[in-house]
Structures are given as C-alpha cells and as structure tokens.
Amino acid sequence: MKCPCIAIPKKKGEPARKFLMELDILDKSLKISSEDGELYIPIERELTPEELDELPEDAKQIEREFESHEKILTLEDILGFTPGYEIIGDIALIEADEPEAQKIADALLKLHKNVNTVLGAVSAVEGEFRTRRFKVLAGEERTETIHKDHGCKYKVDLARAYFTPRLSTERQRIVSQISENDVVFDMFAGVGPYSIPIAKKCKKVIAMDKNPDAINFLKENVKFNSIGNIKVIEGDANEIARNFKGIADHVIMNLPHSADAFLDAAIYVTAPQGIIHYYGMTHEDDLFDSSIGLIEAAAKKVGRSVEVVECRTVRSYAPHQYNVCIEVRIN
Predict the structure, then answer these.
(1) In the 8-state DSSP scheme, what is residue 274?
(2) Domain 2-65 class?
(3) End-to-end CA distance of the chain
(4) Domain 75-142 is in which class?
C-alpha cells in the first residue's frame, strides 16, 4: 500500500516518530520500515511546510509502499460484545446460562491458544465442600487443570474443589504480612492458594479442609511446590482447632459465607497479639460493623479483646453484596 511518509536517518527516527505522534498523524495501521540506514515512517496526511521545518533538515517527505499491521482479533470483534469469563490453568469458565454461551465458548477456544477446555457453570458454589457443577461447552472433556500464580502451581479439579484466580491480588496482600518466624493457621485451605505461598515465607503452616478431594490436591500441591513446612489435616476446623491452643500468629478464615461459625475456634488458636484475617459476604449498608461485632463477642466470651487493624472490600460479589476482609489483632 502506497502512502505518504517521512524518510529520515535511523539515528534521528525516534524523535521524528514522537513528533508525528504529537501531531496525531502517525499511521498506526501500517508498519514502519527501514532500508539502507533510512527509516520510513507512514503518516495519514502530508506535512505542511511549517510542520516539516520542525524536523531535521535531512528528513524528506515522500510516498512509499508499506505493509499493513495484521489486526489481532478480539472477542468483541467476533461476538459483537465482551463476555464475562475467567481462566484457570488451561480452562476457561463462563456461566452456562449466558446468552450465546456456545458461541462464546467457541470464540474463547479460538482466540486463547492456551485454553483447551471451556466450561459452563451450571450451579453456584454449593454444598458442604463448596463445589460447582459444570458442563463442557468446547474443547477437551475434563475439569482438571494446573494453574500457575506468583511462582506457585496448583493442581485442581474444578468440579471437586473450589478455586478462583480472582483472589490472587488479595492472597499476595496477606503473604506480604507474614514474617519468617510466624506460625499460620489456614482454616479452609482448599487446594492451597493461601497456604503454599505463605509457607514459603514463614516457620510453619497448619492447613485444613473438610473436603477430602481438596485435601488430596493440597497434598499433591505441597509436593508439587517442594514445600516442607505445611501440616495438612482433613476435617472440621472447629474440631481440629482444639489441638492448637494459642499457637497461631496469623489465622486465615477464607470461608466468606459462614466464617462466623468458626470464630470461637479461630480465637482459641490465635496467639496473644496474633492477627485473624476474617472474610465475609456483607451488604453494602453494613459492610463491616456487624462482622466486627461478632468477632468482639466471640473474644469477650473467653476474656480476650479485639483491636481492628484494617477493614477492606475485596470485590463485588452480587448486586449490593461485597466480599470483605476484616483484620483484627487478638489481645
């Protein structure tokens, strides 16, 4: 394709390119080319004499053939809209009842070369073991994958154990608070997304979960990541806690819909001056106060006091509902 351009020695090319960008006439649909020490910068219109005078004397305005940039397709290009989805390992997740779900699944498989399966969720997180039901919409017939995050790897079957990449930033925020001599009690560990990166920084992690499938994956992931300071226990956190009075410098309570049922156990295992990281699902009209009240009441029962360290909204969960984290020091 022939179009106007600026020909200029390569060593003067970058200042010229920036000047053309400031004029907003750089033709970004065409590839800048070079030949025999000259750089050829495509422009959308010819420069005025005054504009050309702003360039070095050896800059010339000519016409030349250029190659077009290949357009990178997006989901919006294919579908006409941008769907909601998340990617875990090589599996993409969408809602099964999403309008045009099959079309979305086919587009995801086409555009994301690292995606080999697209699952449609047919249920919310449900049941005692916090799992979801899925159907395969495109690609390989499986629900198991390996997800990588901040230098750690997690093997997980999404139909057998809960996992979300959406809390990656939140998990790293907690990891940043951990010191090398800390003992950490992860009450609802799942496949290990809190326990494993935390264990890389601290003295010891005690990780538990009621879901036997999650525990099996957690044990695999401990080996997978070459971690030697995690004690993995299958069972109910309320019962397990009875064996660990006052040992924890940090207690992770990532069970947002029902963490309040485990507050007595959390306070029991927390060392003096230890921190509880309590996650809840709350309404926008009462993000923190009621949850803080529950924590204070549980502490008061055993003669302990609570100092609120930080309250934060982690993410929006549903209309007017938020996933929150309340961090308290137990004295």
Answers:
(1) E
(2) alpha beta
(3) 74
(4) alpha beta
Task: List the strands of the sheet with 2-9, edge to edge.
Answer: 33-35, 38-42, 2-9, 60-65
Strands 91-95 and 38-42 turn out to be unpaired
- On whether the CB atoms of residues 292 and 308 are closer than 8 A, the answer is yes
Instruction: Give the confidence band of 69 by pLDDT, cuts at 50, 70, 90.
Output: confident
The amino acid present at 115, given as its one-letter code, is V
Cβ atoms of 316 and 297 closer than 8 Å: no
- Report the CATH architecture of 166-330: 3-Layer(aba) Sandwich (3.40)
Task: List the domain boundaries for the chain.
Answer: 2-65, 75-142, 166-330
Q: Give the C-alpha separation, 130 to 50, whole Å.
A: 68
What separation in angstroms does the CA of 81 have from each of 76, 84, 110, 167, 292?
5, 10, 16, 25, 41
Cβ pair 34, 41 in contact under 8 A = no
Among the residue ranges 21-35, 180-194, 221-235, 261-275, the one predicted with the least confidence is: 21-35
Q: What are phi and psi of 199, to 5 degrees?
A: -60, -25
For the cut 90, the answer to whether the pLDDT of residue 258 exceeds it is: yes
Sheet of 91-95, strands arranged across: 86-88, 91-95, 117-121, 134-139
